[in-house]
Amino acid sequence: MAAELPDDFKCPISLEIMSDPPHLQFHPPLPPQAPQTPNPQSLIHLLTSRSSHLEQKLNSLDQLTRLCKRDSSIRHRLAESGAVSAVLNCIGSGEPGLQEKSLHFVLNLSLDDDCKVGLVAEGIVGKIVYALHCGVGDSRAVAATVLTSLAVLEVNKVTIGSYPDAISGLVSLLQIGNSRERKEAATALFTLCSFSDNRIRAIQSGAVPILIQNADSGLERAVEVLGLLAKCKLARDEMLRFCGILDVLIGIVSNGSSRGVQYALLTLSSLCCYNEKMGLEALREGLFETCVALLEDDNEKVRRNANMLIQILQGKRKNV
User: Fold this and answer.
1) What is the average per-residue pLDDT within 77-95?
2) Rounded CA separation 100/62 (Å)
3) For the chain, how many structural domains are there in total?
4) What pLDDT is stored for residue 233 in this prediction?
5) What is the pLDDT of residues 128-155, one digit of tens each?
6) Would you say 47 and 61 are in contact if contact means Cβ atoms under 8 Å apart?
7) How many Å apart are CA 238 and CA 218, to the nearest integer?
8) What CATH code is carried by the domain that includes residue 115?
């Protein structure tokens, strides 16, 4: 009896046993190829070309930003490749997505100190200030963050502060912005106002009452800026004219984070030392006892600032 052959040996059409069955050659799979790194010059060309569509430009910015995040050497090469001048034009465009992605690229490029200097030399400050005033979507918040990053260098603090509408733009954003925009604006002001001339500019731009209002609404970074501005007589005079300033600061001392308490104490020390009436009112509000309790705080800066304010208030007590 003939052996039964498997069905695979039969022709699928005639169902007869195949005398010369076809067979497939085996091809081993190709090894996986590493993804190719995009050519920065090609991406920059797409940004500057008038024939490029919006989607091409957005995609180019995404790829340039990813390249920026890789390492410092790539950021330096991009900074020297003409990418900055191409992106500057995108920041000034009226297209929201293009503007925002350009700002994110610049923010990543500014991670290195050398790039910070180069960006400012390329004229980036003017474009960032434009975005502060006219940006849409998240552009204004990102623009403020870029200024914070650039202002880490002392030389850039001077350049940014002296640029028309830079500090006033941050103050305006602090007043009318959403939660994120106000936080980023206050952070940028804090960084810039470590340079004394910028404190005067912030005060002259009307920052003091706006900062107090923001501090009262829970934005503790605003208290930090007040602590810096309180070093100036002009700012102290404005703070004393603000109705309820003592209640705002005491509220932060009682309920704020360690950093908020630290700067609220610093601001109170400046005001109580400067103004006799403020010191006496602080005593009546029980601030002396609050400071004594803070001498046991875990944070060394809080303890130090509390002790400084105690010394000032003790002097006021002796004069009563």
Assistant:
1) 83
2) 11
3) 1
4) 97
5) 999 999 998 899 999 999 999 999 999 9
6) yes
7) 20
8) 1.25.10.10
